[in-house]
Amino acid sequence: MENRTPFYRRNLLDDAGRERYDRVIEAIHARKKHLPDDLTGAWTAVADHPELFWATGTLEKVGDSDTWSIGYYSLADDEIARERAEIDRVTRMLLDLAPSDGTEWDKALYVYETLAQLVDYEEDEEGIATERIASDGSWDHGRDWSRTIYGPLVHHRAVCTGYTKAAQYLLQQLGVECLHLSGARGTRHCWILARLDGAYSFMDVTWANATSKERPGVRYVAHDYFGLTYADLAELPHHEIPAVVPLPEETTGGHDWFKRTDRFADTFDPAWVDGAVERALASHAGYLELKFANDDVRDQAEAYLSGHHGLVCEQRRLGILTAWLG
After folding, report:
1. First-residue to last-residue Cα distance in the chain
2. Could you tell me if 50 and 149 are in contact, meaning their C-beta atoms sit under 8 angstroms apart?
3. Residues 287 and 319 reside in one and the same domain
4. What is the DSSP letter of 290?
5. Which of 122, 162, 206, 270 is the most buried (most CB within 10 A)?
6. What global pTM score does this model have?
């Protein structure tokens, strides 16, 4: 489709659908309490706009009527203005450091790695405790910074919803088309579909914020969840694809970080492993991530890294291995 925008859902619509989509966004900006009846079907437009952090993204039916109340967090106008200014300040700083002349893949990787390093996983348990209904059917939803862009960008704390919204917002600011996905295979979870250099793949920033099993308390950026395909998601425990909007027919394995950075091997080759270790040591990375075609090859590499190089290793999903260099 020509003239694509960073807003995945809007790109799927015809002119009439875009007009209704835009009216939903206008209603949120104006903090309308109720959604007009003719816009109910266009409500999912709000999922394209994480910058509307004062909205919960939910609709509440008012009694037995046909009226729907728009869900908002308990924020006064001056609080919204202050928090928006804080978000804008952090966003400008992060975008100034982004690879402006890089590919969309480079920009997405920057967002992935930056949020993994910047944000801790923490829920705003106190903020989500308050919820009450007003006489006009509108709802008060407490605060909950952990599920908005304010938590990860300003507090540097969030749960998966906040991580994903922050990634979505930064990607959109960098001109990358993306979609916030929420699904469940046992436990509800959120992640991103992104269109990078003409092809789609998935990224999950929440799981990029990894903690070492072998080095208690040590956090690091894990690249397992960048550039995932449909087949990759099928192997993961919390990534049930939701049927919310039409998704692309195919996803590409060409976005896989390991393959793009020469950290993937089909077979065990000691010389290749030696070269990967040398490059990691030269870059002062502190750890080395490698991906192999299957667990048998990964096990051979682990035994070699442990026996020949004396490195402590830990296995991860999808044939991936981390070796600690220090």
Report:
1. 49
2. yes
3. yes
4. E
5. 162
6. 0.94
At 223, is the secondary structure helix, strand, or coil? coil
Give me the chain's average pLDDT, please: 92
At 148, is the secondary structure helix, strand, or coil? coil
CA distance 100 to 61: 44
> Are 196 and 301 found together in one domain?
no
In terms of C-beta density within 10 A (0-12 exposed, 13-18 middle, 19 or more buried), how is residue 324 classed?
middle
- Tokens at residue 108, please? 């997405």
Do 190 and 285 reside in the same domain of the chain?
no
Cα 68 from Cα 36, distance rounded (Å): 8
- 246, 269: one domain: no
Q: Please tell me the least confidently modeled range out of 113-117, 187-191, 263-267.
A: 187-191
Is 285 a residue whose pLDDT tops 90? Answer: no
183 and 286 inside one domain: no
Residue 158 lies in a domain: yes
* Structure confidence by residue, pLDDT tens digits, 196-221: 999 999 999 999 999 988 888 889 99
Distance of CA 204 to the CA centre of its chain: 5
The count of structural domains within the chain is 2
245 and 308 in a single domain? The answer is no
Catalogue the long-range contacts made by 37-43 (C-beta closer than 8 Å, 24 or more residues apart). 37/66, 37/67, 40/68, 42/17, 43/68
Placement of tokens 């960048």 in the chain: 226
Element (H, E) at 219: strand 219-221
Place of tokens 């992104």: 194
Domain CATH for 314: 3.30.1370
104 and 206 belong to one structural domain: yes
Domain span at 152: 8-261
Quickly list DSSP for 29-69: HTT-SEE-GGGGGGGGGGGG-TT-TTEEEEEEE-TTSS-EE
Query: Amino acid identity of 172?
Result: Q
Strand, helix or coil for residue 157: strand
252, two tokens: 């590409």
